TrEMBL record:
<protein>
    <submittedName>
        <fullName>SDR family oxidoreductase</fullName>
    </submittedName>
</protein>
<dbReference type="InterPro" id="IPR002347">
    <property type="entry name" value="SDR_fam"/>
</dbReference>
<keyword id="KW-0560">Oxidoreductase</keyword>
<dbReference type="Pfam" id="PF13561">
    <property type="entry name" value="adh_short_C2"/>
</dbReference>
<comment type="similarity">
    <text>Belongs to the short-chain dehydrogenases/reductases (SDR) family.</text>
</comment>
<dbReference type="InterPro" id="IPR036291">
    <property type="entry name" value="NAD(P)-bd_dom_sf"/>
</dbReference>
């Protein structure tokens, strides 16, 4: 198998399960040394580490809560101390909370936590990582089709967090371009084993009907899009949004 990422160091946030774990596995298969974060699922995180190491690649897991922006600098320092540098940052970690803006019973604490995790937390990690990313580095931010097309009620806050990190990543592309560092977005869609477990059945049905492919994606399919943007093949791609959501409202 070709290993285009040999010699590279990657950090994947939220890498213990789902899309994050699929991305960790694929980047490692392509030759990268991979660090990833988790919040509470230490057993799952260790299982991913063991799986990657069992295939002869290098992986390490760090416990870090993205909602606490003060933890971002220490996380980046830990990755650099462990692997000697950083070349690829994949901003995957996110949580979901829903509620219409006029709902008097909306869980505003959960919504505020989502904003802290999905938006402020991503910004903090990008800021910290940008200071140490080596020339030719890659920043890939995982967003959602809801970041550009809000197709269901109750998703205003979630969509805002995703739209926000998309625009932030576009600005990062401009700021870091002179250092030959690219910054791009992957708009992910509904995935097996993903946030659809937290989605009301009627909302899930509506979302599936809005997809051109009329099916959920597999984490490996979205991980492939991330790996492309991390690879040498995407050296002239920056400030772009790559849709990997099955044709959501296409």
């Amino acid at each position: 198998m070709s290993k285009p990422l040999t010699g590279k160091v990657a950090l994947v946030t939220g890498g213990s399960r789902g899309l994050g774990a699929a991305t960790v596995r694929l980047l490692a298969e392509q030759g990268a040394d991979v660090a990833f974060t988790y919040v509470s699922s230490e057993k799952q995180a260790q299982a991913v580490v063991d799986e990657v190491r069992g295939k002869g690649a290098k992986a390490v897991a760090f416990k870090s809560d993205q909602a606490d922006t003060s933890q971002a600098p220490a996380l980046i320092d830990d990755v650099v101390a462990h692997f000697g540098g950083l070349d690829i940052l994949v901003n995957n970690a996110a949580i979901s909370a829903a509620g219409t803006v006029d709902d008097p019973d909306a869980d505003t604490a959960a919504l505020d936590l989502m904003h802290a995790t999905n938006y402020l937390g991503v910004i903090a990690i990008i800021r910290a990582a940008s200071r140490v990313l080596r020339a030719g580095g890659r920043i890939i931010t995982v967003s959602s089709g809801l970041g550009s097309r809000v197709g269901t009620p109750g998703a205003a806050d979630y969509a805002a967090t995703k739209s926000g990190v998309e625009r932030y990543t576009m600005g990062v592309a401009r700021d870091l371009g002179p250092r030959n560092i690219t910054a791009n977005v992957v708009e992910a869609g509904l995935m097996e084993g993903g946030m659809e477990k937290e989605t009301p059945p009627e909302t899930l049905k509506a979302l599936l009907s809005s997809l051109s492919l009329q099916r959920m994606g597999h984490p490996d399919e979205i991980a492939a899009a991330i790996a492309f943007l991390a690879s040498p093949a995407a050296s002239y791609v920056t400030g772009a949004v790559l849709d990997a959501h099955g044709g959501y409202n296409a």
